[in-house]
Amino acid sequence: MFPFPSMEFPKRQKKENLTERKGQKRKLEEDFDDDRDLSLPSAAAADDGDNHQALLCEVGAQVSILSTTFSWKEADRAAAKRATHVLAELAKNEEVVNVIVDGGAVPALVKHLQAPPLSEGDLSPKPFEHEVEKGSAFALGLLAVKPEHQQLIVDNGALPHLVDLLKRHKDGSISRAVNSVIRRAADAITNLAHENSSIKTRVRLEGGIPPLVELLEFIDPKVQRAAAGALRTLAFKNDENKNQVIVECNALHTLILMLRSEDAAIHYEAVGVIGNLVHSSPNIKKEVLVAGALQPVIGLLSYAFILSQVLALDNSSCCSESQREAALLLGQFAATDSDCKVHIVQRGAVQPLIEMLQSPDVQLREMSAFALGRLAQDAHNQAGIAHNGGLVPLLRLLDSKNGSLQHNAAFALYGLADNEDNVADFIKVGGVQKLQDGEFIVQATKDCVAKTLKRLEEKIQGRVLSHLLYLMRIAEKTVQKRVALALANLCSAEDQRTIFIDNNGLELLLGLLGSTNLKQQLDGSIALYKLANKATTLSPIDAAPPSPTPQVNGSMPIEFAYLLLLMLSVQCLMVVIGVLEEKDARDIEIPNIRWEVFELMMRFIYTGSVDITLDIAQDLLRAADQYLLEGLKRLCEYTIAQDISLENVSSMYELSEAFHAISLRHTCILFILEQFEKLSARPGYSHLIQLTIPEIRNYFIKALTRPNSDNRGCRQLLLNSRF
């Protein structure tokens, strides 16, 4: 076993920052069609001097109106309503928000969150009842989009008034205006509390959570959505708020019912609330599961997708968001215990999650990969996910440039690799090559991929190996090659002969190396080099060939005696044919050998020790080959091998062929395999590959059938070469 790869929950906070924040601003602007004909200063360049002054004047004028119209007079109410709408219209441009705040709009708007005082006994109809409060809540919600203004609005006393607005329906009056003011109050609370823990707590202390929970069952679906959105924000990373929502207000039952709503926006908000409730709260997670949330959450995976195909674009966006939240929530459920992982799969979550892996929505792909990664920590689920087609889309996600998405996919694949039944499928679809060739963005992903490959390697034995050998014999050619490549990288040294000699795996790899497709050539060279590493057992004594033992008792080394006899034989032959006069017999001319070469040759034979430099090594190799001095020849090969480079490997290989330098030849082969990618960019590489393939075949046949010291020696030559 090896350490479990790191895996974190995708951060809800990040999503709140982007998607939810923009969505909230969009919701605040919905249905605000009144006074579209307002003539307002341009907000395109708030920093421009003249325009900035015009904006300040306009804001000042509206603030002045609000400050002087706090009464039930119809004219005052109409003017106040229009002023709140003007400020809200300006606040839609975030570049102007600071100008509005600097102009003193916040205290004036907060004042109009409450109704003006009534005269005692006044039962007359109220002009623009709820309208001014709605406009004020709407404008303050837009100003609160900027975090630096949240505390200012709260310090001016907005929260108690907003909480009171949530209860406007309790006086028995139900109308569109009442519904709208409640919704705007809930939206304003959402923006004020966004990523602000102290304001979240203040909302609870002001009594804001119970009325929001009650509004989840309100008749108007827009109010339900707004209330759920506020609870979603208040529950995030605030345990006291979570406890009040779940325990004191018993909201869980209603939220689970909302998951089954046909309104995409409602089930999106509901699943978001539940997700934030269970986030980092194991006990609440258990309560949610006991309350029956699992099946409706799974249902959202498919139901939301179907809705997105038939509804308008805006609702389609909500459907995707519901799917994303549902997938994230299932991933959190799956972390509870093994039984829950199994139940999620049994209830039909796998297929829609796999379909979501192919969505154009990046976040949707990430959440589905996250959920599948959690589910894949169970052995039965691992086989089920692969059987239902999860392998290929997960492998494709490794190409993503999104680090989080890539890591979630890698973690899911790590889980699938733990099941022996998945190994052959992994290899058949090219999964091993994908893992090896991938460009991974973060270190955690690189570590996870390395552990996945290690996990696969540990399973290449027994029935898994038998299955792969069967595929390598009878499957289509593409699969055969993938199996051979994978086994070259993953199999144990003990199984190499069975795989690559007895079952023809070597010929498959050589076929790739000799291909006209550069990628296949590169894959083949990498696999063969890996195979050579495993086939060769290195030993420290192989750094250089052994030297003959020097003689200290006056006797002559056998190699020296052999050479002397050979030279005398040459001399006698020359005398017989008349080339050499008897009187000149004391001097023997040896053709093709310089004196410096001959001297080194003699020193090696007699002393067993000689220093060979690169400038003389090739001439000395030629002489050693001519006079069959294998020990000296090996030393020359060792010296020459240290000079192998991309520029000269072709000539070095030809040199090894000319003088039967087997160790040097094998060193050239290993160099070519290791440096293939660089060699392939040079002219003439294709001819070199075709030239060496027969010798590569011979090398591996010998290495895999009769390992010997020559193999170890040539491998060590390569390790000590300076290229």
Automatic annotation (TrEMBL):
Record field: compositional bias (Basic and acidic residues): 9-29
Residue ranges of the TM segments: 560-580
Region (Disordered): 1-46
Keyword set, alphabetical order: Membrane, Repeat, Transmembrane, Transmembrane helix
Tree of life domain: Eukaryota
Residue ranges of ARM repeats: 104-158, 157-207, 207-242, 348-390, 389-431
InterPro entries: ABAP1/ARIA (IPR044282), ARM-like (IPR011989), ARM-type_fold (IPR016024), Armadillo (IPR000225), BTB/POZ_dom (IPR000210), SKP1/BTB/POZ_sf (IPR011333)
Pfam families assigned to the protein according to its UniProt record, in alphabetical order: Arm (PF00514), BTB (PF00651)
Pathway: Protein modification; protein ubiquitination
Keyword Membrane: yes
Domain BTB: 546-644
Entry annotated with the keyword Iron: no
Protein name in UniProt: BTB domain-containing protein
